[in-house]
Amino acid sequence: MTEEQRSLLDDFTKKVLYLKEQLHVKSAENEELTKSLKDAISEKALAAEEIQRLKYENDVLRVSRSLEQKEDDAGFTRQRIGELVREIDKCIELLNE
Fold it and tell me: 38: helix, coil or strand?
């Protein structure tokens, strides 16, 4: 083997080792990013559930306040009660299937 061939082989070997090292680094980064993404997705789901719960609580409070205020917000109260009745009807239909 000539000196030039050895030099080329050494360069090639160094490059392969460097790429192998980079593969391990990038794989570790990928695992870390995947974990971060899963955590973010979980946090988003929890936040969405919290938003739904808070919206429901807000609706309940608005209905209860409007019932206390009598006619001031009666339109909202009637609308919300109608929505609740429709939701209950849908649930009953699903249970009957």
Answer: helix
